[in-house]
Amino acid sequence: MERERSKNFAHLNIGILTSGGDAPGMNAAIRAVTRPALHLGHRVLGVRRGYHGLWRGDIYEMNSRTVSEIIHKGGTFLMTARSKTFETPEGMQKAVNMCKVFEIDVVVAIGGDGTFNGALALSEAGIPVIAIPATIDNDIACTEYAIGYDTALNTAIEAIDKLRDTASSHERCSVVEVMGRHAGYLALHTGVTAGAEVVLIPEVDFDFQKDIVHTLIEDRNAGKNHYIVVVAEGATSALDLAKRIEEATGIESRATTLGYLQRGGSPSWRDRFMASLIGLKAVDCLDARRFNRAICMQNGDIVDLDLKEALTMTKTIDAGYVEYLDRLTM
């Protein structure tokens, strides 16, 4: 049965932007907001290059064709950028003025912590917002899951599986650096599912001799001839660590930094599905005029929280997962 069009007689002019680091599934989220919003009679405006494009007026009207054939594409077709100008009072005022020029009633901001903080600042300047979590680090405190995380995790696992082949052929230790300057979710889950001998994350201090040298020597003496060490970029440098491992153990070691490879690629089914559900929840909030909300997953459900309250929440690695890792790498 066709969904009833909006019961609110006045339509909204909805601006959509993606900001900060790109994440696979952002396009699916844009689509999931645009199509239902148009069906309900609202008007949708795309903001190119995030908050930078907002204050510059890089804005155009979108329709259902604009968001066709994008659900399977990585990155963000609206593009993204970081904006120092937007962070200044003058830049914020320019963004507010542009919202008035284009008659934008509410901004849907898709991105990570920086995007959420930008959305809060915009709301405090008088422009209503909805914030959607999308970051491969999965470190937004108010939500259990962020769009892009699953794809990045699968990319890292696939890369390590391939590195394992050459590490085995040459009897090497492969030290693989994944993203995660302040959060170790990606490294932890990659390490567990890729069968790494050692995983280093920013949240847990490590002892080089005990946690790395001793572990690798024990594995070698037990007959193992290749090794995988996964390190989050915020824990230490893969290049430096590989040199130290080779000097301390005599095991030939090579460093690989996956870097921006993790941001790219067609989004996984989970990221497409989650982006669609989260986008629909955002549209429900928009149509109900429930503004200044963060769309989150909590206890497996998609919910909306007060944005300011959401940004006060904290999130840490579950100690139980660290224990699981220790037991699996014994």
Could you characterize the architecture of this molecule?
With 330 residues, the chain is α/β, with parallel strands linked by helices. The chain is built from eleven helices and eleven strands. It has helices spanning 26-39, 50-56, 89-101, 113-124, 149-170, 185-194, 208-221, 238-249, 269-287, 307-310, 319-328; strands at 13-18, 43-47, 59-62, 106-111, 129-133, 173-178, 198-200, 227-232, 253-257, 293-298, 301-306. The strands form two sheets. It has a seven-stranded mixed beta sheet, with helices on both faces.
- The backbone outline, from C-alpha atoms, is elongated
Helix content: 40-55%
Query: Sheet with the most strands?
Result: 7 strands, mixed
User: What count of structural domains?
Assistant: 2
Poorly predicted runs are none
| Topology as a string of helices (H) and strands (E) | EHEHEHEHEHEHEHEHEHEEHH
Distance between the termini: 56 Å
Classify the secondary structure makeup into a structural class: alpha/beta
CATH class of the largest domain: Alpha Beta
Number of helices: 11
Give the topology.
Blueprint: E1 13-18, H1 26-39, E2 43-47, H2 50-56, E3 59-62, H3 89-101, E4 106-111, H4 113-124, E5 129-133, H5 149-170, E6 173-178, H6 185-194, E7 198-200, H7 208-221, E8 227-232, H8 238-249, E9 253-257, H9 269-287, E10 293-298, E11 301-306, H10 307-310, H11 319-328
Parallel strand pairs: 1-2, 1-4, 4-5, 5-10, 6-8, 6-9, 7-8
Antiparallel strand pairs: 2-3, 10-11
Helix pairs in contact: 1-9, 2-3, 5-6
